[in-house]
Amino acid sequence: MPFTDEQTEQFREQGYLAVPEFWTGREVAAMRAELERLKEAGKLRNVATDGDGKTHSQTKANLQLCPMWPHSDFFRAMPFAPKVAEAVGRLIGDPVLLHLDQVFLKPGRHGAGTNWHQDNAYFQIPDPLRGTALWTAVHDATVANGTMHVIPGSFREPYEHARDPDSDHHIRCFPPEERAVAVELPAGGALFFAYGTAHCTRANTTEHERAGVALHFINAGVHGRARGGFEPGKRPVLTGPDATGGEKEYGVRVGGTWEREVERVLAGSAQA
Ligand SMILES: O=C(O)CCC(=O)C(=O)O
To answer: How far is the CA of 268 from the centre of ligand 1 (A)?
Structure first.
C-alpha cells in the first residue's frame, strides 16, 4: 500500500495520518482472537489508578500488555507484515526498527482513557518526525468508545509532562485541547502519528470493549539516541541492509510469517 504524496505530506505537516482500510477483515478477526487468548491467559494488566498514580482502580480499567511479542508469535509477526515496513519507511525514512509493541484494551462501560501525552516525552529523539506509532483499531473506534484524539501540528511544540495520577506508570501533559481532532476509524483502520504528536483517548462509554494495538517504529539513525529501557541494539531491524527478518534479534525468522500466523490463529479460534 504505497502512500500518495498527499498522505506523506499530511504526516509531515500535521504529524498524523489516518488510513481507514489498512488491515483486512481476516487480519482483524485474527487480532481479536489472539487478544481474547491473551486476555484469558491473564496477560493484560490494569494500569488505571484512582487518581493517585498508585492505588489500582476497582472501577476503571485500562488494560495493557507491553511488550506483546514474548507472549504471542502472532503479534511478534505483525510488524513484519510487508505493508507495515513499506508504510513506515515512507513516513519516517528507512531503515526502520520496531521500538515497542503494546495493546490498550478498554472494557465496555468502565474502560478508562489514556491522558494526553507525547510519546517523545518518553523517548526524546531529536527530530520527533523520525519515529511513528501505528495504532490499529481492532474494533470500530468511535468517540463514544474512546478513540484516539490528536493535536495537529503539536510535534513542533514539546509540552511539559508530569506523572499521570490516573495511571501507575504514565506521564501526561495539558495541550491546547481546543485544537484536538477526534480520529474515528473502522476496525482495521490505522492511525500513524509521529512521536511528537500529542494524543489521548477517553473513556469507553459503550457496552462493548475497544482495543487498540500500538506498534512504535523508529528510524535506525536516531535509535541510539532514544531514551528509555528499550534494549538499544536489540530491537528488530525491519528494513535496510541490517534487516534479517527478526533472525538476529529473536533467533528465529519472523519475516514472511504474517499471513501464516493470521491463518494459524483463525484456525485455532475456529476449533476452540
Ligand atoms: O489506545 C489507547 O487507549 C491509547 C493509545 C496510546 O496512547 C498510544 O498508542 O500511545
So the answer is: 28
Atom of ligand 1 nearest to the CA of 117: 7
Query: From CA 41, how far away is CA 52, in angstroms rounded?
Result: 28
Calpha distance 186→190 (Å, rounded): 9
Mean pLDDT by 10 residues, the chain (272 residues): 91 98 98 97 88 82 91 98 96 95 93 92 94 98 97 97 84 94 98 98 95 96 67 81 94 97 94 74
Provide the residue ranges of all domains of the chain, joining segments of one domain with +.
Answer: 5-271
Domain spanning 5-271: which superfamily?
q2cbj1_9rhob like domain (2.60.120.620)
Q: Which residues pair with 16 in a beta bridge?
A: 193
Amino acid at 37: R
Radius of gyration, CA atoms only, the chain: 17
Within 195-245, residue ranges assigned H as helices are: 220-223
